[in-house]
Each structure stands twice: as structure tokens, then as C-alpha cells.
Please model this.
Amino acid sequence: MHISIVRFPTVTAELDKDFRDWFASSNDQLRGTAGLKGRRLLRAADGSYTAVMEHEGASTFAAVHAAEAVSMVQSGLGQILSECPQAMTYEGVADFAASEGCCGGHGTGSHDDAAQTHLSVGCCGGAAGRG
Model:
């Protein structure tokens, strides 16, 4: 797993719709690209945008960015933003797979498995259930 996190410069109110349309269109252009597992656009409370992209690995990340479709996508962004986005890339070192229900779907409330991670307050007797 190879993750790219891209922070975009401020998008003016006049260009906000154009920017969101660009992102949706770029998803369509890149859909089916070998190695690209997904792209998401996130908006913070302050109105700033960040994109998260997941690739199969560093080699597919490099291949995706060498593709002609990426050049077209980036040129479209250049028509909306006056500054370049800032990107960081990360190589996955651990996974957390979501499962049905709480506690891996067991619902027993057992905390015997030290590797089990509880992310929901109150899950299986978590913070809200202890008392």
C-alpha cells in the first residue's frame, strides 16, 4: 500500500465549484488506472482541501504519475489554482481491516486479544461501558 496525501492551496469561493467539479472529473479520467486503488477529496472545517490517494505500491504510484491522463488532470488543475498543491507519500506498514460489528464481529465483549483495537467509545465495554 502506498498513500499520497495532497494539500491544496486555498480555493477561492468563486472557484470552489470548479475545483470540486475538477476533482470529480479527474476521478472519472483516472478510474481504472492500473495500481490506483482510490482517491478521496476531504474538506476541513476551515474550508481547505486535502486529497488522499491509495496506490498498490510505490512502483504503481510512479507508473500512474507517468501516465498521460495524469498530465491532463494536472493541467486542468492549473487552470483553477494559482499555486501547486503540496504532496507527501507514505508506504503502508500496518493495516486495520474494518469488520462487521464491534470486536471483529464477535460481540462477546472480550478483551483477551491484546491485538484487538477498539476505536468506538463504548465498544465491547469500552470507555462508555466501563464504570
Summary: The first strand starts at residue 2 and ends at 7. The chain has three helices and four strands.
